[in-house]
Design goal:
alpha/beta; two-stranded antiparallel sheet; four-stranded parallel β-sheet; binds zinc ion; 8 strands; 9 helices
């Protein structure tokens, strides 16, 4: 009991230190970027063209938005997979219909390939955290209609990393995306989820293995204030849906009325 208490307090102190360090790092990075913008022109992270008004050059920005618009026309509103032009989406697409996903709906900026995949991989590194709000701005622009239908009192909740992984990596890219989205939508970010157990890398696992590993991986803080609320659950990539599904189930058990998974990249069709 004593060692558990000591472990918790050590973990709490480390989490506090991580939060302080992240805040300082973000302020320094933001100040550095602002100063850079005055002195150095942007270099597009997709094609490396120099001299645009923002991080993405006009060509890449338009191309990403056009791809997102095409993907939106064919996306399943339940799991965000792309479907055929004549797909019957009542109750979901052929991949998700009849499946318990955990979340109620999913929005993805685009397919997890090409430039978007490269940007998501870049975003995993702390020095690229500045990309997050630019990507969520694109997402909001591309998904304007769906986002307009979200309730004005929704909470934005990032998928957490296990505290030790976040401490080693230096930051959580999902939290950076959640903050960018929340700022744009004037909604609060609530770090309600705690990763109760470290999980091995999911990339090599089958969908069934992922679901099994993720079962019970999340705990919810501040349960009572969640009752009846819509949660916008933010992650960088949606692959099999096991991570968002497990997090959504924990949020639902704690009282959330509806959970919408919002991600930057959606992998191509997998068995859910
Ligand atoms: Zn470019
Ligand atoms: Zn679907």
């Amino acid at each position: 009991m004593l060692s558990s208490h000591v472990g918790q307090s050590t973990r709490g102190r480390l989490s506090g230190l991580v939060a302080v360090r992240d805040t300082v790092a973000r302020l320094v990075c933001a100040a550095g970027r602002a100063a850079d913008g005055l002195v150095f022109p942007w270099s597009c992270p997709v094609c490396e063209t120099i001299g645009s008004n923002g991080p993405f050059c006009a060509v890449c920005r338009q191309e990403m938005l056009a791809q997102a618009a095409r993907a939106s026309l064919l996306a399943c509103p339940r799991c965000a997979h792309s479907t055929g032009p004549f797909a019957d989406l009542r109750g979901g697409c052929a991949a998700c219909r009849g499946q318990s996903l955990g979340f109620d709906a999913a929005l993805a900026f685009g397919s997890y390939d090409g430039a978007l995949r490269a940007l998501c991989l870049q975003l995993k590194h702390e020095e690229s955290a500045w990309l997050a709000p630019w990507l969520t701005d694109l997402l909001v622009e591309a998904k304007r209609d769906a986002i307009a239908q979200l309730p004005p009192d929704a909470w934005v909740v990032p998928i957490p990393l296990h505290w030790f992984r976040e401490w080693r990596r230096g930051y959580n890219q999902s939290e950076a995306l959640a903050r960018g989205l929340a700022r744009h939508l004037h909604l609060p970010v609530r770090k309600l989820l705690r990763r109760a157990q470290a999980t091995h890398r999911l990339a090599a696992m089958s969908p069934t293995e992922r679901r099994e590993v993720m079962r019970g991986a999340f705990r919810v803080r501040h349960r009572t204030r969640l009752i009846g609320r819509t949660v916008l659950l933010v992650d960088d990539v949606l692959t099999t849906g096991a991570t968002c599904g497990a997090a959504a189930r924990a949020l639902k058990q704690a009282g959330a009325a509806r959970v919408v998974a919002i991600v930057i990249g959606r992998t191509e069709r997998t068995t859910l």
